[in-house]
Amino acid sequence: MKKKYFDLDLLQLGITDICNNKCIMCHQSADWFNKEDQGYMSFDDAKTIFDDIYEKEISFRVLHTFWKGEPFINPDFLKILEYIFNKNKEKTLFEKIYINTNGTLLKGKEEEFMRVLNIDPNIHSTVNFSLDSVSQETYKKIRGTEFYPNIESSLKKMIELRENTSFENPVFIFQLVIQKLNAGEMDLFVEKWTKELEKFGKEPEFTYYLKDFKKDVIFFRPLQPETEESRELWMRALKKYLPEEYKKLNEVHISRIHASEVKRPKIPCFHLWKTPIIEWDGSITACCGDFNLELMKDFKEKD
């Protein structure tokens, strides 16, 4: 029986901690990021995890099948995804699924991916494509590889599959992490993906933060950690495409500058109690920023 409430807000599943890109703004490129003993979750381990969650009648509002690495590097990713969808009868495990991908390994898998995402059309699915450019030259400067033609081709094909078949899912997010290297392509980025959607009578929303979307979205993501330059570039995007949000954020930013010397109590992150993360090897953590898994030990060692 479908629950009327969810025990926790979000479960993040670390399908793998390996990535095939070398993004200059990512933890994968940081000196402190631990790349020893990397791997990917086996189908049997994923099955055990979700069988156990099902038996214990634990539910999550959202399942996020991404943490630290590119999920399609895991050869069992679609098999795991299909099992999870079939296990999630009447939304007993989760109501929505959210998938991050750089899209570089999707070629030849687009139809299978779409089929799995539509096993149950009532389960709302969102796929966030990390793009960051509209050209191979800029893509390589930011993401360190020459995969841009692959991702553009696969994303176009997935849009066509959704619009020309009975598939209802997913919602697509076109993500642009705004920074100096791609700021000059911002308008071209918007124009390109808006035109792709307009071919099918659709148009995107614009956003600067993630929430539940019912239509495709162009996501102006801020660079983290923020610099004065990156914030200025990001605010420029908001001013043009999200003027109301820009006005509010600009007022908040100005007030923070004036109050910079005022000491405020630190507010604990509430996500620690609502969004557990299970890494590919069974390790767990409560913090999405705990990339080296220093906060908790392997749940397999616990009673």
Task: Annotate the secondary structure layout.
Layout: E1 8-13, H1 43-55, E2 60-64, H2 77-87, E3 94-101, H3 110-117, E4 124-130, H4 136-143, H5 148-164, E5 171-178, H6 186-198, E6 205-207, E7 217-222, H7 228-241, H8 243-258, E8 277-278, E9 284-285
Parallel strand pairs: 1-2, 1-8, 2-3, 3-4, 4-5, 5-7, 6-7
Antiparallel strand pairs: 8-9
InterPro entries: Aldolase_TIM (IPR013785), Radical_SAM_PqqE_MftC-like (IPR050377), rSAM (IPR007197), rSAM_sf (IPR058240)
Domain Radical SAM core: 3-266
GO molecular function: catalytic activity; iron-sulfur cluster binding; metal ion binding
Notes on the protein architecture:
By secondary structure, the chain is α/β, with parallel strands linked by helices. The protein folds into 2 domains: 1-101 and 270-303, TIM Barrel; 123-259, no CATH class. It has 8 helices and 9 strands. A 9-stranded mixed β-sheet has the order 6-7-5-4-3-2-1-8-9. Helix 2 (77-87) runs parallel beside helix 3. Residues 255-262 have low confidence and may be disordered.
